[in-house]
Structure formats: C-alpha cells, structure tokens
Write a structure and sequence with these properties.
By secondary structure, this protein is an alpha/beta fold. The protein folds into three domains: 10-143 and 321-328; 161-305, ABC transporter type 1, transmembrane domain (ABC transporter transmembrane region fold); 343-581, Rossmann fold (3-Layer(aba) Sandwich), CATH 3.40.50. It has helices at residues 5-25, 27-47, 49-64, 67-120, 130-141, 144-151, 155-165, 167-214, 216-221, 225-277, 283-305, 307-326, 383-390, 413-419, 434-438, 447-457, 460-464, 483-495, 515-528, 563-579, and strands at residues 343-350, 360-367, 372-376, 398-403, 406-407, 420-423, 432-433, 473-474, 501-505, 532-536, 548-553, 556-562. The strands form three sheets. Strands 6-9-10-3-11-12 form a six-stranded mixed beta sheet, sandwiched between helices. Strands 2-1-4-5 form a four-stranded antiparallel beta sheet, covered by helices on one side. Strands 7-8 form a two-stranded antiparallel ribbon. Helix 6 (144-151) packs across helix 11, helix 7 packs antiparallel against helix 11 and helix 10 packs antiparallel against helix 11 (283-305). The radius of gyration is 34 Å and the shape is elongated.
Length: 587
C-alpha cells in the first residue's frame, strides 16, 4: 500500500530519531569502526609494495642484472605482503564481530519495539521483519562488501601516485573511476525502488504461504489446496517477475562496469607503452601503473558487485531506525508490591488502526477482590477486544484501566503479565515441552509451580497420561493436542504465576465432562484468595461463579448489573420481542 505524503514525512522523522538512538546504543561499535579504518590504512599502504617492487625490478634490477638486490627486494615484499594478509584477516574478524555486536546492541530494543508495534498495528506484519532486518545488517558487516567500503577512500591515493608517474596516466584513471562511480550512482537510482518493491512482494508471498501451512487442517478439509496454491503462486510469480526485472536492470549496469574496467586496464597498459615509446615513462612505471589502476578500481567493482547486499542492508537499517523512532524506549514501569485485585475500567474505547469504527466504545465497570464478572454478547460484540485491552494488549484510543488504582501503563510489562492470567480465545504454543509452555518459556521452570498450576486448572491427570508427561514436546503451535487439551494447558499457563486477576476468553471447552466442576472450583478458589476473574462467554455454565454480568453489543455497553437481574431482563426482553404481533397481521 503506497504511503501518503503525511505518512512519508512521519516515517522520515522516525528514521532520523531512530538513527540517533542507534548511534547511542552502538557506541562500542563506532569505536570498532575506527580500528577497522586504521587496518584499512595499513592494508592500502602495503598494497603499494607490489607496484614499487615491479618498478624497482624493471628499472634497477634488470638493467644492473643484480641478483642480491632482487633477493632482498623479494624478501622485503614477501614480509610486507604477509603483514598485509595478517592485517586483512584481522580486519575480517573484526568486521564479523562488529556485525555480532550490532545485533547484540540492538536486539533487546528492537524486540521490544517490534512487540509494541505488533500490538498497535495488528493488521500489519512490518514488525515481523524487524528481527530479520537485524540479521541482514549483521551479515552485511561480515561480508567483503563492508571491507570494500573502507577501501574506497584510498582510491584517490592510487590516483595521486599515477599522476606522479605521468599526468596522462592519472587523468585516464580519474576519468575511468569517475565513470564507474557515476554508473554506480545510476544503478542505485534506477534499482533501489524496484528492490524495495521486490522485498515487499517477497514478504507478501512468504506470509501467504506460511498462513496456508499453519492452517493446513482447514486447507485440506475444505479442499482449498488448488485455490490456495494458485493464490500463493500468483503472489510468488509477481515477486519473481519483479525480482527478475530488478536483476535485469542491475545486471546491465554491472556488466557495463566490468567491461569498462577491463577496457580501462588495457587502455592504461596501452597508454603506458605509448609513453615508454615516447621516452616519457620507464617500463617499470608502465607495469606499476597497470597494477595501480587495477587496485584503485577493485574496491569500486567489489562495491558495485555487492550493491544488492548493500541496498538490502541500508533498507533494513532504515526500517529498524523507523521502528525505533516510532516506538521510543519506554521507561521501566514500577513493580508494585502486592497489588490488590481491584480493577477500574473508565470509558475505554478501542479503535483499530486504519478504521473509523470503534471495536468497543465507552466501556466502564469496576471489579473488587473476590468478585467475578461475566461478559456476554453476540458474535462480534467486542468481548475479545475487551479481554485484550484488560491485558494492556489492544491499543486504547481513550479511557483508562487501573489495577489497584494504578494505570496499567505504569506497570512494568512483564510484571503485569505475572499479575494477570490470560486465556485467549485462540490458543497458541511455542516449541518446547508441556512444562516449558506452562512456565511461560522460563529457562529454569519451577516444576512445583508448574504442577500446582496444572492441578488448579484440572489438567494434571490429563498431562500425566501424555507420552512423556510434563516433558512431552509440543509440536508446531500445539497441533498434536486436542482443542480441550490446548485450553487446559493454556489455563495452566495463565495460572503459573498465581495471578490476582484472571481473564478467560470463551473457555467453553473447559465445561465439558468434569471440566465444568474444575473451572468452578478454580474460580471459587481464586476469589477466596482475594483474586478476581472476568469470563467472556455466552455459555450459561461459565457464569455460575460470576456475581455480575456486562452485556456488550456491537462494541457498546448495553447492560451491567447483578447476574440474575441482568439475565431476567434479557429473558423478559426476548420473550416480549417474540410475542409482539407483526404489523402486517394486525388486520
């Protein structure tokens, strides 16, 4: 989707802010770049040993037929080239570590910003690229292209030496280098937009393919394999066609530059030979000039050859900067000591991004310790949006949510996640064992707490019957578990940190069999401990522990009150609607 002028201006401002923050976070990396530049200086000065060796051989050794001089020169050059190789090796290692340090310096900040971006822009997947962008930049620093960038500033030195040999040689090298640089700039101008578009199309095709594979049960069961393939194929072919066009454009420039470089090398040798014939240049200087020409243009050719990688890294860095600029680092929230399960929701409105219609609007209620609230309403009423808002996930357009009189925004995010247990309507898991998922991916799960949470959720016996009990690996997104098993494990995960507030979004599968009794016991125990619960449901069986009910319809609050009173009014209203005679039958 093309951006408006206003959006582009915002993105540019975010990139500038993000670059400043990246520069601050990467202070150590910047110091390492100074060392890389010093290494580049030694390498490029030592490169001159080759042309100087040829100059001495042709102009002094051969005319004098001096073998000792040749041996001494050779040993000196061999030592210098060995030193150059060691320094070049050290520079490569340092660049690889710069890439790693770049990733380490930004990974936490980028990870947090990507999570915030995903909570706000739920319909976009730009945040999904952030971690991949870190890898793109890291690989760029470890590539030969990064080293070539540090060698480019030394090209004028070689041109200066050529001017010392003869002005015509310097002029030829300068004209050739300027032409290559102009071609490089033209390559960037022509291909950058196409490369960005190709990246977007590749992401679109990849996301589409991943979506089909994630929902393989639906695809196979409903016979969507052919239609799914055609849709993915169309997206993939569009990205490939765009990539081919971009490659054709850049390839034509690269081929022209390679041919030009070979022509310049030959022209330098031919011009040198002419000057030798005219008595204006020695044979040694002719050979040395040819070598210097090749060396001066080598970084340019290498940089051009890695132009695509450089572009991808530049675009990735800009995307990272835009992400960081759009979501400044938040101050670490407070970790309040033993807050009470006292919840106050004041006129909250949630409006999805790029939408004029509010998902929920002006919702207000309160909850005291030891209480449970049932939230009911038809499909699309806004129950799940409200549940996510209470977890501080959905971005609120207005209104305030307070837990123990403290706004949710003032809590540390991880601490808030421990205070609030959340069972989403759509349950997902991560690669790992059952215990690791219940422990919320803690590196060292507290098994006593894991088992206690599973027992409270009524999942303990079910887990013990699994092939490896709590050590049973969970496959991709829990595909090996039944829907009820998924909800039981997810409820155990919600209870792992003994939360003071429990939010259950459509826990209908927990009501089957003896699950209903377990759910009621768990809610009763939670309230007895001074906790509170909110249950989003349309199942009467899930409301038995709820003292009050909130009714939502099309995102609006229709009723709030004691459970029995609200249900009686709803039944009476529904009965009245059924017995009212139709207008066309009044005759």
């Amino acid at each position: 989707m093309p951006y408006s002028n206003t959006d582009q201006a915002i993105i540019k401002r975010n990139i500038v802010k993000g670059r400043r923050e990246m520069a601050r976070l990467l202070g150590r990396v910047r110091r390492q770049f100074v060392l890389v530049a010093i290494f580049a200086a030694f390498i490029n000065l030592l490169v001159l040993a080759g042309p100087l060796f040829m100059l001495q051989v042709y102009d002094r050794v051969l005319p004098a037929r001096s073998l000792p001089t040749l041996i001494n020169l050779f040993l000196l050059v061999a030592f210098l080239f060995t030193m150059m190789g060691v320094i070049d090796w050290a520079r490569g290692r340092l660049l690889a570590r710069i890439g790693a340090d770049h990733q380490r310096g930004l990974e936490r900040r980028v990870f947090d910003a990507a999570i915030i971006d995903a909570t706000i822009n739920t319909q976009e997947r730009s945040s999904n690229n952030a971690l991949r962008d870190l890898e793109i930049v890291q690989r760029y620093y470890a590539s030969p292209v990064a080293a070539a960038v540090f060698d480019l500033p030394w090209t004028p030195l070689y041109l200066g030496v050529l001017f010392v040999f003869h002005p015509w040689l310097g002029a030829l090298a300068f004209a050739g280098g300027a032409t290559l640089i102009l071609l490089s700039l033209a390559t960037q101008f022509v291909t950058r937009g196409r490369m960005e578009e190709t990246t977007q199309l590749e992401n679109k095709a990849r996301y589409l393919g991943n979506d089909f594979l994630r929902q393989i049960e639906t695809v196979v069961s409903l016979g969507m394999r052919e239609s799914g393939f055609k849709r993915w194929q169309a997206a993939r072919h569009e990205s490939m066609d765009n990539a081919i066009h971009a490659t054709d454009l850049s390839g034509s420039f690269h081929a022209s530059m390679r041919a030009l470089r070979m022509l310049l090398q030959t022209s330098m040798l031919a011009l040198g030979a002419y000057l030798v014939l005219q008595g204006e240049l020695s044979a040694g200087a002719m050979i040395a000039a040819s070598i210097l020409m090749g060396r001066s243009l080598a970084p340019v050719e290498l940089a051009v050859g890695g132009w695509t990688q450089w572009q991808r890294a530049t675009v990735a860095r800009d995307r990272l900067a835009a992400l960081l600029g759009a979501h400044p680092a938040a101050q670490k929230g407070a970790e309040w000591v033993s807050p009470k399960a006292r919840l106050a929701v004041e006129d909250i409105t949630v409006r999805p991004a790029n939408s004029d219609r509010a998902a929920i609007e002006m919702i207000s209620f309160s909850l005291e310790p030891g209480e449970a609230l049932g939230v009911i309403g038809p499909l699309g009423a806004g129950k799940s949006v409200l549940a996510r808002s209470l977890c501080n996930f959905s971005h609120r357009s207005s209104g305030t949510i307070r837990l123990d009189e403290v706004p949710l925004d003032q809590y540390d995010r991880d601490n808030l996640g421990r205070l609030i247990g959340y069972l989403p309507q759509s349950v997902t898991f991560f690669p790992g064992t059952v215990a690791e998922n219940i422990a919320r991916l803690d590196l060292a799960p507290d098994m006593d707490r894991v088992i206690a949470a599973a027992k409270r959720a009524g999942a303990h016996q079910m887990i013990l019957k699994m092939p490896a009990g709590y050590d049973t690996p969970i496959e991709f997104e829990g595909a090996s578990l039944s829907d009820r098993q998924r909800q039981l494990v997810a409820l155990s995960r919600a209870l792992y940190h003994d939360p003071i507030l429990l939010i259950l979004d459509e826990p209908n599968l927990l009501l089957s069999g003896d699950g209903g009794a377990c759910l009621h016991t768990m809610l009763s125990d939670l309230k007895a401990r001074g906790g509170a619960a909110i249950v989003m449901t349309n199942s009467p069986g899930a409301l038995s522990e709820c003292e009050r009910i909130l009714v939502l319809d099309h995102g609006a609050q229709r009723a709030l009150g004691a459970r029995d009173d609200v249900l009686k009014r709803m039944i009476a209203s529904a009965t009245k609607a059924r017995v009212v005679p139709r207008a066309d039958s009044a005759a």
